Amino acid sequence: MNFWKNLETETQWKEIIEQSRQQPVLVFKHSTRCSISVMALDRINRSWKPENGNSISAWYLDLLNYREISNQIAADTGVEHQSPQLLMIKDGKCVKSETHQAIRLEEFIGQ
Question: Hey, which residues does 97 pair with through a beta bridge?
Answer without folding.
Answer: 87
